[in-house]
Request: fold
Amino acid sequence: MLFQFVAAQEKYEPNWESIDTRPVAPWFEDAKFGIFIHWGPYSVPAWSPKGTYAEWYQYWMQNKTLSGNGKFTGKEVYNHHVETYGADFSYYDFGKMFTAKSYNADKWAKLFEDAGAKYMIITSKHHDGFTLWPSETANKSWGFNWNAKDLGAKRDLLKELELAVKKTDVKFGTYYSFLEWFNPIYIKDKEKFAVEHAKPQFQELVENYKPDLIWSDGDWGMSPEQWRSPQLLTWLFNESSIGDSVVINDRWGDGTRFNHAGYYTSEYGSELDGSKPWEECRGLGFSFGYNKNEDAWDYASERTLIYLLLNVVSHGGNLLLDIGPDADGNIPPIMQDRLLAMGEWLNVNGDAIYGTRKWKHASQWSEKGIKNWKPEGVHYMPNNVIIKQTIDPEPGYAVREIFFTKKGEDVFAIVPKWPKDTLEIRDIKVSKNTEITLVGTDIKIDFEQKGKDIILNIPCLSPEELPCKYAYAFKISQ
Reply:
């Protein structure tokens, strides 16, 4: 259930001891599934080698460097840019080409709803400094117009999305990058940039768009004290119009990630211990921004996405799944299809996902084999690792047979394959009042306690009789 949250403490002080006492709103832990959107001038070239982030186009191009999954010379993006646009074509010229001519915020919002997402987060400003709203701060510090209202689209794209999303039950979130790679003030004096640019622009974003969630990023390279993050957060909590309700993440300067502020954020990781509210972000493909180089097989399959969700939620986290619209504002059909498939599965199995918490075990592994197969030599963990850990193991490796979640006294056992005849769930005690049902149906499952385990007698169902595809949830009501 999503409801209004009011922070317990009236006033916070600008230090981590105080800030860290602020709880994360319960709606966030209940939500479990959110949609990330990377969209900006980098969506015009939409190009980077597979295994790298296309939204870093400007950085790759101007610094003649490249990193990610794979081996690179570093000049791939620079060479592509010169060959395609010419050596004199500036990255800033992409601002004029970022037209968003097909952008329809209401259609986006409906897609998020139909996907079963409970919140969304969009790059209001990425590391290139371009804002999706008419930021006076941006124009002033850059010395030229560098926002969607004054260039290309000639629209306040962020306000359109805010209004559309707030007509739904989906929470509205904004990503905000502290650093700006090539901002002249940032290059010359980073601490001056923090005070004269980042602070007023952050406040501008907060008061004009009132996000339910703020996803800070680009905080590396400076301490939170240099960024003035503790002071900014106490302003946010104590004085801003959203102080009682806003949710924040943990990226507020070197050393804060996984340590301070709001919920923890992993990126292509998937398995924090759940002791603190957390979220795993990853792309539907690999790149967060739209990348024309990615083919159909580079996008996670429907099955993979559902297993990724199960793995994250079973560990007590949320899955933040990224899409990259093109420069016209079209969400590519393959991305829409994947999101709608998630919504279809969640429509059946939402009881086992939304509002749940981590059980004593995240998953049950097969008894034989080595756990946690991972590929070697990769910087970011690929999406398909979860397939190898469930239904297509490498020789000698174990698989996750069951994912678990809990809600109150109820335990959900979610299997990635429909069991044949019986299902053994180890290390669980039931009572004489226990009832087990197949989620999405009225089917009751016969079972028996056998020592520390229970054995479920699985009915023989045809594919047409199964409530969904890919994964099946059994509700164990105590």
In short: The domain at 16-352 is CATH 3.20.20.80 (TIM Barrel).
